[in-house]
Structures are given as structure tokens and as C-alpha cells.
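Blinded run. Sample ID left blank on purpose so nobody reads anything into the name before looking at the predicted structure. Input follows.
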Amino acid sequence: MAENSAEERRKRARVCEARSEKSAREREKAEKESKRAANEKKIERLKTARDSIQSQKNSAKAKRKKLEKYANGDEIGEWIGKEQTATVYSIEGNVVGQYNTYIERIDDVVDALCNEITRLENENMQLSWDVLHIGSLINSLVNEIRTLCN
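Blinded prediction complete.
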């Protein structure tokens, strides 16, 4: 009878341990799911920002192209002289150059946004795997608890 009591105490202790471990795993799973959901919201905001900035880049490219056409006389017909030379020099050297710098900086920002989006997507893939793994551990603990309680 003493053996049976010791065995019952051991089973009850293991049930308590398994329930405690199950609760801890459920909290861990909930935290990872919450982190994944927060990352999804960040990804959506970053994609919106990326698309908006990409649109600004396209607009800057169109303006630069229009200025280049203007400097070449495509927009106003043939023109020559010192004023034409000075205007072309100013447009090509200063304004178009500034647009090129602006476009390059926009590219850097878009690249950084894309990198962060990819990082968060990769993190979410890992979090999804973690959630599945923790779910498997919880399932095994539930089975162990049921088995011990039989």
C-alpha cells in the first residue's frame, strides 16, 4: 500500500509539473503569436511607406526627364546662344545633378525599407515555426497529463 501511495504522489507531482509546464508553454506561444501579429502590422506600414517613397522617386525621375528635354530644346524648339548654353549648363550641372542625388538617396531609403521588410518576414517565418513546435510540445503535455490521470 505504501508503494501505491508513493506512486500516486509521484503521479500527482508529475501532473502538477506537466500542467505548470503546459501553462508556461501556452504563455510562450501567446507571446510569439503576439510578436508575429505586431510584425505583420509593421510590415504593412513599411510596405505602404516603401510604395509611397517609390512613387516619389518615379515623380522625381519624370521631372528630371522633363528638365533634360527642356535643356536640350525639345520642349521649346531650337534655341542657341549664351543664354541657351548657360541655361543648359545650369540645368544639366546643377538641377539634374541634384535630382540624381535625390533619386539615389531615395533608392537608399527604399533599399533599407526592403531590407527591414525581409528581416521581419524572416522573423515571422521563424516565429511561425516556433508556434508550431510549441503547439506540438503542448499537445504532448496534454497527452501526458491525460495518461497520468487515468
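Unblinding after everyone has recorded impressions. The mean pLDDT is 89.
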